[in-house]
């Protein structure tokens, strides 16, 4: 019986290789379409030796090749435990899931430590198998493993140590394993909690900024909210778009350069930022216009935080401290950039003399 299965495997291996190829491409596409960001995805085909060992362990269970459902296996490693559920919902929607042979190994007894992962046995959906490229592989089953990066860390370390269950671990070490398992599970829970808290904070920021901007410190979330919603920042963005005929990246670009620049200029809160921008409103917008009209070639990508960088440069020029700003923010200006910014600043202040 075993030899028959191995012979069938050798004959069918090219088809299983095609299953693996199509499966990995499809899952990557589905993850992108569903905006699910993962850490890693990997796919493998069970080798002949591994298959032979599997059959030997349970010869009474495996009578034919189709009884073995993990010849092709794909592993999806997510960042968070909650992402495991997002991926699982996607798999259930897009594939035919063999519920009887699938198992959620995250559901452990309270006194059990060890491997936690979600395993699906599945095949391509009936609708997808109507496509010519899927017809030849429509009856092939495969295993999909989904787990968080911390669950993956446990599995890898457990495998390296060589212990698969509490039964094989000496009593003296069981408490240690339990502590580690609890710590990793707690970390998974806490990362999810932090993500939800950050999401909630980010969605309340527009209201908080409107009501009490002086209480909102400068950070990535607050700068992003300001850049997306502040009327003056929007005006500056539209000025850049009209000159360069470019698209704006609405993902805020924030880094140490921006935060260090704002800090050096004593802009500590969103209220400080709003007042600073308003105090030089006309000149600041003209400065952006002059810079882009004179030499757009030296300007890199444009996103919603770009005007804030220019505001910092303009304020630094007005205080005659652009070099110092560059030093504290680790920004290296080219000679061409310095000439461009100085030329724009001088022209604006000739057009609009200080009172």
Automatic annotation (TrEMBL):
This is PpGpp synthetase catalytic domain-containing protein (RelA/SpoT-type nucleotidyltranferase). PANTHER family: GTP PYROPHOSPHATASE-RELATED, RELA_SPOT DOMAIN-CONTAINING PROTEIN. SMART domains: RelA_SpoT. InterPro entries: NT_sf, RelA_SpoT. One of its GO terms (biological process) is guanosine tetraphosphate metabolic process. Residues 43-169 form the RelA/SpoT domain.
